[in-house]
């Protein structure tokens, strides 16, 4: 079974910032690497499920014209909404994926530290929903902790194995270190994705 609401409600009842997104150098560095890995300078419409208190969302907001940031835990969604109130192009919604999924296409989907909470069925559903909603030349970025955590359904490596196994996604970035894996994918639909240099006309 996927990790349920009660677990995250308890986590947020115990701390304003349970993972130290605002305080840990580890988190700041990983966030900066995630943002730097995105192949395009600007995105029109992004989706970030599991946005927590909205710290990565704020970084994404500088690169996106519109962001849908969804968070399953009511307390975290309220904090994210309050913190991001100065950014009118960011819409924070309390909603749980993959049971719900937003309408329309996205040129960026951000799956950061989320998928190890999902059982096989939810993970498969979510990856399919992601692929189906990726616009042409859209970007999927996935980043996950690699060390064992008792409360997780699966490891970060397993999450990335599932994504890598999909034939409808092509991996264009792989950043691997002992603590986390960061991968960027693009849709396999229209042939091999163009590299950043190709998009910039350098090659
Ligand atoms: C470890 S935090 C990651 C936050 C953010 N994505 C980041 O990397 O900075 C995971 C967040 O996902 C939320 N979450 C877990 N399962 C969810 C689901 N099924 N739908 C939406 N949010 C979920 C949790 O409440 C939590 O806030």
From TrEMBL:
Single GO molecular function: S-adenosylmethionine-dependent methyltransferase activity
Pfam families: NodS
Keyword terms of this UniProt record: Methyltransferase, Transferase
GO biological process: methylation; oligosaccharide biosynthetic process
Source taxon at top rank: Bacteria
Keyword Methyltransferase: yes
InterPro entries documented for this protein: SAM-dependent_MTases_sf, SAM-MeTfrase_NodS-like
Name of the protein this chain belongs to: SAM-dependent methyltransferase
Organism per entry: Nocardiopsis metallicus
């Amino acid at each position: 079974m996927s990790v349920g609401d009660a677990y995250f409600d308890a986590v947020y009842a115990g701390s304003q910032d349970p993972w130290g997104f605002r305080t840990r150098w580890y988190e700041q560095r990983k966030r900066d690497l995630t943002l730097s890995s995105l192949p395009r300078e600007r995105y029109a419409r992004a989706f970030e499920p599991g946005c927590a208190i909205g710290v990565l969302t704020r970084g994404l907001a500088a690169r996106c014209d519109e962001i849908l940031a969804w968070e399953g835990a009511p307390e975290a969604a309220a904090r994210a909404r309050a913190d991001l109130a100065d950014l009118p192009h960011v819409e924070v919604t309390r909603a749980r994926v993959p049971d719900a999924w937003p309408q329309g296409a996205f040129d960026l989907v951000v799956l950061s530290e989320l998928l190890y909470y999902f059982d096989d069925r939810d993970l498969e559903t979510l990856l399919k929903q992601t692929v189906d909603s990726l616009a042409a030349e859209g970007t999927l970025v996935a980043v996950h902790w690699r060390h064992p955590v008792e409360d997780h359904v699966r490891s970060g490596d397993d999450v990335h194995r599932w994504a890598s196994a999909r034939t409808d996604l092509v991996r264009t970035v792989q950043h691997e270190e002992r603590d986390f894996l960061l991968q960027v994918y693009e849709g396999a639909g229209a042939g091999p994705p163009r590299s950043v240099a190709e998009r910039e006309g350098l090659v």
